[in-house]
Write a structure and sequence with these properties.
Acyl-CoA Binding Protein; 2-enoyl-CoA Hydratase, Chain A, domain 1; 2 domains; 3-stranded mixed β-sheet; about 10% strand; binds coenzyme A
C-alpha cells in the first residue's frame, strides 16, 4: 500500500473552514482597499460560498484557492520555503509562490471566478451512498457492501479519486471483511466503482493528520499490519473482480485471493521504488512464488506496469474477459460458484492456505517494518512531494 495511515481526512467543510481561518486577514483591511473587478462584498460572498461546498474539489483546486486567497489578501509570497518533510505547508507555499507578482486585485477576481465555477458545478445531490440499493446493503462511507445470491460484494466507492484508499477506507474494509467472514454468504468479492479498480494507497495519507513523521509512520505501520492480516486470515473464498486499472496495494494483495477475474482494460502497476517505498501485501513472497523472482522484480523493483493478459501469463490473474461481456460473464460464473456447498468451499480455502499461513503473517511483519523505515526516509518524502507538485502544476 504503502500506507502511511494517518488520521481520517477531514470533511471538505472542515478543510475549507480551516483554510479560511488560517488565511483570514482582518476584514477592515479588505474593506479599505478597492478591488478591480470584484467588489469587497463579492469577495466576502465568495468566501462564504466556499464553506458551503459539499463536494471536495480535489487537492489541486484547494491549493489554487489557498494561493489565490493569500495573494488577494497579502500580496506575493515573500516567506521562506518550508522544509521538504513539511509536505502540506510546502505544497501550499509552492502554490502561492507560483502566482508570482500578479496583483492583489487580479487575485481577488480569480478567486471569485474560481469559487463561482465550483458552486455552479455542484450536482443537485451529493450523497454518494444515496445511489445504493435498499435492503441487503450495509452502509459505509467509502464502500458499497451488498449481500445477494450468497455473495458479499465489497465495492470500493471513491470513483472520483480512482478508489484511492484513505485511512477511513482501510478501516472500513477491515470491518467489511469481518462482517463478510461471519455472514451467510459463500463468496466475498472485491471490485471498484467507476473506471478504476483502485489506485492504491491515497497519497494524502502521507500529508494529513497530526503528530511527527515517526509517529505517523508508526500508526501507518500498525494499520497496514492489521489490514493485510485481515486478508491472510479470511476464512472464505476471496474473489477480485478487477474492473479497471489497479495500482499499489490493490495489486500486491491479489496474491492472497483465490480467484482474480480481470477485464481486458485492467492494468497492474506497483510503482514502489518510484515512490521511495517497498512492497507490501505479502507480495515480496507471493509474487516470486507465482511468477518467479525475475518477473516479480520487474514489477516490484522496476515498476513495470503489466496488462491483464500479461498478468494472466504471470499467474497473478486467473482469467481475462472482454470488456463488453466482463460483468455478465463474471457474475454469471460467480453466482453459480456461490451455490456450491459453503462449508466445503471455506474449508478447502483454509486448507490450501494453511501451509503458508504463518509464513504469510511473518512476511507481512517484515514488509511492514521495512515500510515503516521507508516512510521516514528522504527518498519517500521527495517522491510524495513531487506527486503533489506535479498535480499543483496541472
Ligand atoms: N492518492 C491520492 N489521490 C489520488 C490517487 C492516490 N493514490 N490516485 C488518484 N488520485 C486522485 C488524483 O489526485 C485526482 O484528484 P484531483 O481530481 O483532486 O486532482 C483524481 O484522483 C483523479 O486522478 P487523475 O490523476 O486525475 O486520473 P488519471 O486517470 O490521470 O491517473 C492514476 C490516475 C491512478 C494513474 C494517477 O492518479 C496516479 O498515478 N495516482 C497515484 C497512484 C499511486 O502512486 N498510488 C500509490 C501506489 S503505492
Amino acid at each position: 500500500m504503502a500506507s502511511l495511515a494517518l488520521r481520517c481526512s477531514a470533511s471538505w467543510r472542515l478543510v475549507t473552514s480551516r483554510l479560511l481561518r488560517v488565511s483570514s486577514v482582518p476584514s477592515g483591511k479588505l474593506h479599505t482597499s478597492a478591488m478591480k473587478g470584484a467588489t469587497v462584498q463579492q469577495f466576502e460572498t465568495a468566501k462564504n460560498k466556499l464553506s458551503t461546498l459539499q463536494n471536495d474539489p480535489g487537492n489541486r483546486v484547494k491549493l489554487q484557492i489557498y494561493a489565490l486567497f493569500k495573494q488577494a489578501t497579502q500580496g506575493p509570497c515573500t516567506t521562506s520555503s518550508p522544509g521538504m518533510l513539511d509536505f502540506v505547508n510546502r505544497a501550499k507555499w509552492d502554490a502561492w509562490k507560483a502566482l508570482g507578482s500578479i496583483s492583489q486585485e487580479e487575485a481577488r477576481q480569480q478567486y471569485c471566478d474560481l469559487i463561482g465555477s465550483l458552486v455552479g458545478a455542484e450536482p443537485p445531490s451529493t450523497d454518494a451512498v444515496a445511489a445504493q440499493p435498499a435492503g441487503s446493503t450495509t452502509m459505509y462511507k467509502t464502500l458499497l457492501v451488498t449481500t445477494e445470491d450468497n455473495i458479499t460484494t465489497i465495492k470500493m466507492n471513491r470513483p472520483a479519486k480512482k478508489n484511492a484508499i484513505t485511512t477511513e477506507m482501510y478501516n472500513e474494509i477491515i470491518a467489511a471483511l469481518e462482517q463478510a467472514a461471519t455472514d451467510d454468504s459463500v463468496l466475498t468479492v472485491f471490485t471498484g466503482a467507476g473506471d478504476f479498480y483502485c489506485s492504491g494507497n491515497d497519497l494524502n495519507n502521507f500529508v494529513l493528520g497530526d503528530g511527527g513523521v515517526e509517529e505517523k509512520a508508526r500508526q501507518g505501520a500498525e494499520l497496514l499490519r492489521k489490514y493485510v492480516r485481515a486478508y491472510i486470515g479470511f476464512p472464505k473464498p476471496l474473489v477480485a473482480v478487477v474492473n479497471g486499472p489497479a495500482v499499489g496495494i490493490s495489486v500486491t494483495l491479489l496474491g492472497l485471493f483465490d480467484l482474480v477475474y480481470a477485464s481486458e482494460r485492467a492494468t497492474f502497476h506497483t510503482p514502489f521504488s518510484q515512490l521511495g517505498q517497498s512492497p507490501e501485501g505479502c507480495s515480496s513472497y507471493t509474487f516470486p512464488s507465482l511468477m518467479g523472482p525475475a518477473k516479480a522484480s520487474e514489477m516490484l523493483l522496476f515498476n513495470k506496469k503489466v496488462t491483464a493478459a500479461q498478468a494472466c501469463e504471470l499467474r497473478l490473474v486467473t482469467e481475462v474477459f472482454p470488456e463488453s461481456s466482463f460483468q455478465t460473464e463474471v457474475w454469471t460464473r460467480l453466482k453459480a460458484y456461490a451455490k456450491l456447498p459453503p462449508n466445503s468451499l471455506a474449508l478447502s480455502r483454509q486448507l490450501i492456505r494453511s501451509v503458508e499461513k504463518q509464513r504469510l503473517y511473518d512476511v507481512n511483519d517484515l514488509e511492514v517494518e521495512c515500510l515503516r523505515g521507508r516512510w521516514v526516509s528522504d527518498e519517500c518524502a521527495a517522491a510524495i512531494m513531487s506527486f503533489f507538485q506535479a498535480k499543483a502544476k496541472l
